[in-house]
Amino acid sequence: MRFDTIIVGGGLAGLSCGIRLSEQGRQCAIVSAGQNALHFSSGSLDLLNVLPDGTAVNRPINALAALSQQAPQHPYSLLGKENVTRWVEEAEGLLQRSGIALFGHANENHLRMTPLGIQKATWLSPPEIPTSPLSGYQRGDKPLIVGIEGFMDFQPQLVVDALLQQGISASTAYLHLPMLDQIRTNLSEFRAVNIARVLDKPEHCQRLADELNQLSGEHDALIFPACFGLDDPDLYKRLAEKLRLPLMILPTLPPSVLGLRMNNLLAKRFQNLGGVIIPGDIVLRTKMEKDKGWLLYTRNHTDIALRAQQVVLASGSFFSKGLVADRGCIREPVFGLDLLAETEREKWVSSGMFSPQPYLQFGVKTDAYLRVMRQGQRVNDVYAIGSVLGGYDPLFQGCGAGVSLVSALAVAEFILARQGAGYEHE
How many domains does the chain have? Predict the structure, then answer.
């Protein structure tokens, strides 16, 4: 099977890169091992929340200069402020074209409410999630936090306790929802995704609205767990129109309906553009043949190679086995690439439980065009994007989604430029 570009990894970075290339007529395939980080995502996307020295970031674009000084190997630093700014805007457009409605802008972070009721800075959020400017919520709000009886992955009282500490007069209530009784008896099956498959049925929308309206009382808003709208992004609007009070939702413990919905919409966009997703497969070995490009052999296609002129490595970090930690070393398993990583095991982690962990900054080493390195030499036509990249801490710095999107669009542009005028990066 021959393609223009093969992308190894089907998460946010891989899908975004594939979409951009496909929009320009490239024939792309994504080899996806299975679940990716989007399945565990809150649905919000971070661009940059904290500098490496711990300084909070309110305006991500304005902080890129300081980031370059503190972390020269950060992907944003390698790509440059002007380019990052442009690709951030393009990322917002790509998400919109994929049917993903999000609130926010890169010029200034906003606060979103987490499933624990605390406020966290972020770049983009689903419009259904409670958000506010960085100055914080207005005091005097009286939301009702609504749980589902027997649903353990969302605890309304934890949200209420956190909001009360912030001066917000919140209270809690529970819905029974008889239509869920069949799955309620098995707690291992009583998860947000399975609940959504029931609540998404058209005949249940009015019943859910009636139950929520009965609880309205003296409150000024309803906050409900994200347990509906898995395959139908418009269900929220239809439900909200039937309610007396404004409706907001909060993500739950994984698997996340909001994250899965984003993944499904991106995959649908990619496939509608002619892209091919090869699910449940992993790349075992690669080979470069002169004049034929790259040959990739996978677990399910051991004899018939996937052929492409370019390969984009979007295989993720340790979570998705894009990086592998053995007892004595850390390695990239597909190409055996050079890494930005400590060689001494004692330096992989910090003793402080809540301290930034060094291993989170480990990843593939690249040049300024995100081309990978092996034994100190650039590997032609192989690029790295997303969390497989080294030089940044996606958790502490709050930049994981931003790096995935920016690096994906950067590499797509670099690849497209090879076919015409643009970047000279031979």
Answer: 2
